[in-house]
Amino acid sequence: MLDSHTPDPELTGSPLWNPDLAPTPMSRRTWSTYNIAALWIGMSVVLTTYTLASGLMQQGMTWYQALGTILAGNAIVLLPMVLNAHAGTKYGISFPVLCRASFGVRGANVAALLRAIVACGWFGIQTWIGGLALHALLLAAWPGWATVPSATWIAFGFFWLIQVLIILRGAEGIRVLESWSAPLLLGGGAILLWWGVRNGGGLGHILNESSRLQKGSTPFWTLFPAALTANIGYWATLSLNIPDFTRYARSQRSQVLGQALGLPATMTAFAFIGVAVTSATIVIFGEAIWDPVVLISRIGSPSVIIFGALVILVAQVTTNMAANVVSPSNDFSNLSPKRISYVTGGLITAVIGIAMMPWRLYSDAAAYIFTWLIGYSSLMGALGGILIADYWVLRRQQLAVRDLFLLTGRYRYLNGVNWRAIAALVLAVLPVLPGFLHAAGTPGGQVQNPTFLDTLYTYAWFVTFGLSFGIYLALMRSRRDAGDLAAAADLPAA
Question: Taking residues 41-49, what's their average pLDDT?
Fold first, then answer.
């Protein structure tokens, strides 16, 4: 087992090495089951989760159908999450370093960049929502804020700056932030639910009113495939880079239990709070208020408004820091380890996230689900299939960690690139590409009279995961040009 504090001139001098990408030493593997669960609570309790069920209900689902779909999606994505987490805990390595085993020490940049760009988009979306919450907080504290020119954009910029300052603190600050924020977020959600039930005439009454939230009339089984895929896509990103966090876990038991306890239940519970409270607003205010930022401004009490906005701000920060900064920071660092540190990678993420104009990505709920979530899930599924096939089937959880940091090691393949992994990625994505292009060119992303390729796209994550898994194994096991691979892979030459 490598220890990043052990001097090794060959490793430390390698262009693939820096202290942030180096294997986590045992002394820093301190995250308990609670820390891992708190991480997921912090990432799951966020405005996009609160409104996740609403997007499905607007298309025609009932509240229990929407919640069941969310629970099923998160239970499914938990499996690749736990499988990919294993290498992080066993070897103390991050996601881009793990990718070097299957894609090659240079080819790993392809996988890392694809994951990083998606994270940048999410960083921008969560920052935009957090800026709106900060805007509401400032309005509650100072009504004159409404007269400030470009007030919303100023709040957005300030919220972005807060996160930049946290980025400068480094990765350890994430653990502390998540651990302390988890009780606050759970308490804030419970208080909001209590307010809705108390003022809305009871839980049964407000859930009966939830039928008024349904805008569409699309049959459930027509909606379900795309909705399930979208919910898998929601965390398909983290199912890849979860080693970025489990590299700090005390044991495999800590990471498995922490994820199982923290992810599916929290996502479903907070989505339920969103449905219940929104239904309560129909009774209390005579209209459905989906946006919790708007809701807290309607409640009236300045203290409630300030507390509610504070909870929302904390929720956005915890999610963004963990889900959308850690991974791209490591991914960008992997491009040039000697020049780009974790902090520098985080700053790059913050800039690109704004450049992607997140206010447009989040402006249309239907397009957000059917184009953004499903679209990138196809890429994440393809990457996930390759990683799991390589680590669990081909290598049987055995990695030569030292060689992951050497240009001349067993993972060099051909000029540092395993063309088989690249081919599996491309071939897996191709079948769903026409459906994505069709959805992207359709308002709201919902294609009328779908063709076979459109239907295939609704199962994008499943399709690309299965295809990349099978294609990668076939290419690796049937190779005949094994001259470079005999040393590059852990398997004997064919």
Answer: 84
Calpha distance 48→234 (Å, rounded): 10
Compute the distance between CA of residue 24 and CA of residue 326 in angstroms, rounded to an integer: 15
pLDDT of 261-297, one tens digit each?
Answer: 999 999 999 999 999 998 999 999 998 888 787 787 7
pTM (2 decimals)? Answer: 0.88
User: How many Cβ atoms are within 10 Å of 195's Cβ, its own excluded?
Assistant: 17
Three-state DSSP class for 2? coil
Residues forming beta bridges with residue 31, ordered by sequence position:
249
Q: Is-contact 394 489, C-beta < 8 A?
A: yes
Closest CA to 374 of 309, 442, 308: 442
In angstroms, the CA 423 to CA 420 distance is: 5
The angle formed by the CA atoms of residues 487, 492 and 494, to the nearest 5 degrees, is 105
For residue 367, CA distances in Å to 196, 442, 451 come to 29, 9, 19
Task: Give DSSP secondary structure letters for 120-169.
Answer: HHHHHHHHHHHHHHHHHHHHHH-GGGGGSTTHHHHHHHHHHHHHHHHHTT
List, in order of start, the domains of the chain with CATH numbers: 9-488 (1.10.4160.10)
Taking the CA atoms of 176, 182, 185 and 188 in sequence, report the sign of the dihedral they define.
negative
Lowest mean pLDDT among 228-237, 241-250, 266-275: 228-237
Residue 298 CA to residue 111 CA, distance in Å, equals 45
